[in-house]
Amino acid sequence: MSYVRKIINDPVYGFITVDDPLIFKIIAHPFYQRLRRIYQMAFASLVYPGAVHSRLHHSLGAYHLMGLAITELRNKGIEITKEEETGAKIAILLHDIGHGPFSHALEKKLIRNVDHEQISLMILGLLNGNMNGQLETAIKIFTDAYPKKFLHQLVSGQLDVDRMDYLTRDSFFTGVSEGVIGYDRILKMLVVHDGELMIEEKAIYSVEKFLVARRLMYWQVYHHKTVVVAEKMLVKIIDRAQALIQNKINLHAASPVLDFFLKQDTNEHFEKYLEKFTQLDDTDILCTLKIWCSHPDGVLSTLCKGLINRDLLKIRLQSERFDEEEIIKLQKDVAGKLRITMDEAQYFVFKGEAINTTYNPLDEHIKILFKDGTVSDISKVDNALIHQQLAAPVKKYYLCYLQ
Amino acid sequence: MSYVRKIINDPVYGFITVDDPLIFKIIAHPFYQRLRRIYQMAFASLVYPGAVHSRLHHSLGAYHLMGLAITELRNKGIEITKEEETGAKIAILLHDIGHGPFSHALEKKLIRNVDHEQISLMILGLLNGNMNGQLETAIKIFTDAYPKKFLHQLVSGQLDVDRMDYLTRDSFFTGVSEGVIGYDRILKMLVVHDGELMIEEKAIYSVEKFLVARRLMYWQVYHHKTVVVAEKMLVKIIDRAQALIQNKINLHAASPVLDFFLKQDTNEHFEKYLEKFTQLDDTDILCTLKIWCSHPDGVLSTLCKGLINRDLLKIRLQSERFDEEEIIKLQKDVAGKLRITMDEAQYFVFKGEAINTTYNPLDEHIKILFKDGTVSDISKVDNALIHQQLAAPVKKYYLCYLQ
Amino acid sequence: MSYVRKIINDPVYGFITVDDPLIFKIIAHPFYQRLRRIYQMAFASLVYPGAVHSRLHHSLGAYHLMGLAITELRNKGIEITKEEETGAKIAILLHDIGHGPFSHALEKKLIRNVDHEQISLMILGLLNGNMNGQLETAIKIFTDAYPKKFLHQLVSGQLDVDRMDYLTRDSFFTGVSEGVIGYDRILKMLVVHDGELMIEEKAIYSVEKFLVARRLMYWQVYHHKTVVVAEKMLVKIIDRAQALIQNKINLHAASPVLDFFLKQDTNEHFEKYLEKFTQLDDTDILCTLKIWCSHPDGVLSTLCKGLINRDLLKIRLQSERFDEEEIIKLQKDVAGKLRITMDEAQYFVFKGEAINTTYNPLDEHIKILFKDGTVSDISKVDNALIHQQLAAPVKKYYLCYLQ
Amino acid sequence: MSYVRKIINDPVYGFITVDDPLIFKIIAHPFYQRLRRIYQMAFASLVYPGAVHSRLHHSLGAYHLMGLAITELRNKGIEITKEEETGAKIAILLHDIGHGPFSHALEKKLIRNVDHEQISLMILGLLNGNMNGQLETAIKIFTDAYPKKFLHQLVSGQLDVDRMDYLTRDSFFTGVSEGVIGYDRILKMLVVHDGELMIEEKAIYSVEKFLVARRLMYWQVYHHKTVVVAEKMLVKIIDRAQALIQNKINLHAASPVLDFFLKQDTNEHFEKYLEKFTQLDDTDILCTLKIWCSHPDGVLSTLCKGLINRDLLKIRLQSERFDEEEIIKLQKDVAGKLRITMDEAQYFVFKGEAINTTYNPLDEHIKILFKDGTVSDISKVDNALIHQQLAAPVKKYYLCYLQ
Q: Which of B226, C74, D49, D366 is the most exposed place for a label (fewest CB within 10 A)?
């Protein structure tokens, strides 16, 4: 039987079907399988114990939504060739392939000059080489170099299947039911007009709801103060480890590959280190933190024990800046308590900012196609929820400290 | 075994438990059982075929949430006696007992001077008489005459269990997943402060989400244009029937009881007709409409056939008023087409308004209790979604017409 | 725009799409719209208040599953033409069109010689006439006269989409989560072999689960003793009404159409009465019962009040036959209590049987297609749950009585 | 404010509440937090990508169900003191605390003479020491030494909250909807009779459904052939590593703690190694496998790469034993292909058995309490699904091989 198809159970969508040989090959590739060992939501499971789903699962979900979106658009008369379909599906499947372990926390930390999107593109290139150029269309779509612009917008845009899947999936696994979006309704309302992705008029409330759910997920989940403090502690741990290494203190990661990225400067010609990079995942970090719990350096071991045992620093979030004097006082306290220097105290008492914009009409656009053929940005629609004020970014200040 | 308890399967909450003899008695009463035969959402099932749940089901659900709310508040140290608990549960169980068939459409139509809340109170009084005054506390809570004001607020207020249940339940049965609210989270965040019901600071996003979901449900479901047109057609049918009756045309309802309310003026001393009223439900209306499909009066039978067979008038919804001339033109068209008078044409071509306010800070209040003990209205909270503009009522104009 | 498509929200499957003009026409037809006013589960809502969904909703759901099944089979290389697709979809959409009000209870009661499947076929014929023979294929599939036998098996067979939808939907609306079946998995495992519908080997556990869920739904829901007693009371009410009519007692139904079927013998040449029959629905029955609550005949009014107010007769279910003497004693009691004759007492004290077979390998077949190409009945599969004993019918005896 | 309570979002049950200071302390303990880093379902996520939930999440869920069960039983008049409640909750929270990484696969492998239940008891003892004997009651309940036997049965028995949670949770996270059990209904039907846990008569179908769901989950999920082959590969990897160590080949685990258990004989006086054991988790194994992917030993690195990259051995499952000759032939093939010895070929070609019993009436009991006060084992109930044949264990044979 020439018919080959694989059905994957997904608690979110029921079943995800794979039936294209090239996509099978990509999913089976070690680069893609690595995503099994990277949490989609990093430390969010410290607050939401169910939020342990992997980046592999998210990208499979986004791939599934891409299939639905393409079917919808074709039903509406938009021409999408088989090759374009496969290209768009591969682009979304691999859109996060360049994420390293605990990516948002460690972005620009382990690998300093290259961001995860650039790495994704490098990996796409590498795979394309291995697979005789079969990823050309996917790469063009990924980089917005493909003529049918709407395909790129499905991969990366205000209403892309990436966001639709992660909001849906993160809401599902955290159990934050308020984050539920009507992804199926939005998908059914997608249209292409003048080559661009838009949404039918009658989906306005669903899109508003989508933006509000995103806003809620940001503050209640992604920027939850416990999640923020855990991420910041990981950053401080890497900072400390690198400081110790520079001071020639004996220190090893659990795996040679993490050891390499901690000790080697990989900023120039990152391509040379790409293969190595694809061996890194969350288990390297976690296993390393566990080992460092008994490192002789007190700063390092205290932070590691705190993060591993979920005995985290305290954190305060507020709309105003924190007072410098209060911070210095807290640092003095901790320096005294732990018998460390004031410089070292900064590993335990520090501040920063978290920013979120629900919808920024300057940067990004959700275009509404009205029945009469006119087009309008959602922020300009009469009675819309998404007005000036909501469009402004919201900034919060945090202060982490040891009590 | 003295232990008596009944468990009712509910697709929304799993199980609803009843374990109080007085509540058993009320649920078993014919007045309450009548609610089985009144759709919670009237004609919404013409658009959302699943939306056929009854007012009985909604009030049982609200009763269930009242139990959860009381447990939560008690856990937080608020004193609520057994008698108050039963009173609040009865008040919510019977809060809609005064609704007649297709209530929102026919409110002030069949019974002209008395609204459903007044009728609810009369029925509460009647039951209280039958049950030796055991409903005294419930009546006080219902009418906000009970000292612990927060009990009334749970029955009727911005965050009452009535709204929480109907939004949750209507969203469930329509399948409009975007209407889902985090009722369980909101319930867990309820507090009583200075004798009033408030919400903890960390529930702000959930409350915002609740208001946005309500807004969405209004426009997408409750005021869906097909639902609006069906309701208005029912009003026109009753108007026409009463006009025919006044003109001594031979016309009967399916049941003596509906016949009575169509033909008799019940505006004074409505109490006399209360018992009769409690025999009316949606089946009287529907069965009557079916009979009138073959009534000799063409206006009546055309409207009835349209509503019964879901062959509805057309409707347009817009933000601006409709042009009078257009309406007259449409009325002329229909008068010609159906060979009826211009007066009769008004049964087929007519206009009106639909209004919705997401949150009106003048009338109603959701108070946030901050950790530091201060209290603020949600519309005054920094960065809140619920700002001036959203608080203003939104008005839409509709035009119904026969094509 | 030539593209016409309607999307219907369904809480069970999310969205149901209709995009065929002929199917639009059938759905819009008054015969089909009548199904809105017939409960899918008759009196089950007396126990499960959510179970108020309509036969229209069920048949739309089965239509949706038919679409999924056809897509699956086509993906596996089975040829199904557009005409066959439409035919199969119409056949399932109309498979229950011949049901009258409270069909299982009143089958062979109001209309004595014709069962609902025969009536469905007559209505299919009538519609086919109206629609210029466009329903020919649907009728052939419905009557198993179509060469591709598997299409009929999808409409009516052990694994048809009718059962899959009603188990899924009834489980959903009752809230009996144990009735959930993996309809999506079973659909994905359907195959056609030698022209017959079969199931892939790896779906064995899902099919077992499906049969066990069906068994559970039978005893816990469909044959729930409260549901049984309500159905039997309705039968007794019709019996009594017809006895009164034969005795020339003044008695009217709420609607002329129900009156007609109560008083007229429609057994010969039922076709003549078909149009009338299509005006009957649950509201005629319910409105009539409400009127009869005040009929002078005590037997009739007592039974009607009991059913309308959910003040039902008592019922006992057991595996052994009931003792005749006990029944006579109970009848004497009620005759004395209500001052009625022993003949009349039989309206309040009576017995009967309920039967259910989980899987009968003699009548019906679920065939498993193994990877090596062999075929086996599921009851013959090694280690299967569905063995001899389970295949035997289970009979229970009931006794209803007034206490 | 003396009121302290923590609410944890759970996608399965909504919210889990913790409000006892002792339970806070246990949850915060590093021994318990370690369970975050142990997958509840080991390699099941290779087939079901959502199945990545942790043992911490499962035990929190079981703790939640214990709370519900206790509330139900108290409502039925069973006396359970606050101390017993806390004891039972701690016992269930810690019932799996002794599991090591990939426990079912590695049970008796890393630690050869002590099983996970013995280790759990040792850890309970250790914690009890640390916490001034506050775990005495929990330990008695855990070891069935507590007079109220039903408390132990809730922790470990045919209808314990452990099984109820893992079936519900595993079904949820895998997306295998057929595994859903009516845990809430079963909990509501629990009774205590003669000091033992039983189930009310009307829950018979729910219990049958529970057993059938368990059977389905075993064959479709827990013993899914891909899951089995992955577990067996892990065992072979550990075997090979220990063989290399014995042959003094240079080989290190990622962490000192895993290295220790690989190289040291810990069979005698395991208590001495308990503290070390509580530092082991899945990340040690996964990080180590990744490192060994580049170990010079071809047998070890080939197996590790296969498991890490999900490039698994083939597996066949059948009801009959495999033929020895076929196995030897396959081993010869692989020995030739990989240029390894016939002894080494056994790491790539090997066989074994998987066994499952749905319900064994000899070992375990589900007792049904009838309304008349009699008690019967479910396998003896009339018409029950759970008969002789289903009670027999089902054995399947597997053969793994490299292709």
A: C74
